[in-house]
Amino acid sequence: MRVSFIKMHGLGNDFVVLDAREDALPDISRKMAARIADRREGIGCDQLIVLERSESAAFLMRIFNADGGEVEACGNASRAVALLHGEAATVETAGGNISLEPTAGGASVDMGSPRFDWDAIPLAYAVDTAAMPVAWEPLQQPMAVNIGNPHAVFFVDDADAIDLTALGPLIENDPLFPERINVNVASLVGENHLKLHVWERGAGLTRACGTGACATAVAAIRKAVAQSPVTVTLPGGDLTIEWKSGGTIRMTGPAAEAFRGTFEWDDYA
Ligand SMILES: N[C@H](CCC[C@H](N)C(=O)O)C(=O)O
């Protein structure tokens, strides 16, 4: 069976998008998602995104990391899907409903409300999620935030100086995080302006992480080192994050379609 896909990205965080809203596809195994995402023998992407019919929203957006794991949220992909869909819509995800609004060259997405309780992150035991008493030197005292998916946010003097390739997998897979975790390392580089590098759960270092930018901006506002709206500069470019305590998070930024293609389903199943 030949299947069409759309290759898209948000600030270089890239996706293979399968639009199964009209014609349903057979279910996708973890192994198949990883094979599609493989940059050497597959099509190659950070996340595989599958759009399906939904009973409770305009459609369902399923998110598979490059390791094949299905997860709850993907900010950059939400903007790419908004661009593809072409009109405002409420979309179901495993992390809750989000609201998409296409803009010129990208989208603005309401990502819902952040959660801070230790068991909502989730963590393996109760700690103060505003400043967790843990360290992976030189990183220490992260804030934990759930944006539909789990994030640890570390603030340092110079985010560029941290060896995230070495530290990322250690933190991602630490037993403190029963569902693993996305690892964010940020520096304040100007008024309400953060620089951010992200080691993504199930995908590793990416050019950008939308939910990571949301988690980091929320953490900076909670720590009163920044005020909304916050500009987050990632290796792939800038996102604008708006949030006030008690409210939902709005993320605005670019998205783009790269190319379209087809593949033989059975080659990856
Ligand atoms: N690696 C993330 C999913 C993708 C998040 C990222 N690509 C984004 O734009 O938010 C996780 O396992 O929760």
Automatic annotation (TrEMBL):
Pathway: Amino-acid biosynthesis; L-lysine biosynthesis via DAP pathway; DL-2,6-diaminopimelate from LL-2,6-diaminopimelate: step 1/1. Substrate binds at N13, Q47, N65, G75, N76, N149, N182, E200, R201, G210, T211. HAMAP family: DAP_epimerase (MF_00197). The gene is dapF. This is Diaminopimelate epimerase. The active site is at C74 (proton donor), C74, C209 (proton acceptor). NCBIfam families: DapF. It catalyses: (2S,6S)-2,6-diaminopimelate = meso-2,6-diaminopimelate. Catalyzes the stereoinversion of LL-2,6-diaminopimelate (L,L-DAP) to meso-diaminopimelate (meso-DAP), a precursor of L-lysine and an essential component of the bacterial peptidoglycan. Pfam families: DAP_epimerase. It comes from Erythrobacter ani. Homodimer. GO terms for molecular function: diaminopimelate epimerase activity. Its EC number is 5.1.1.7. InterPro entries: DAP_epimerase_AS, DAP_epimerase_DapF. It is an enzyme of class 5 (isomerase).
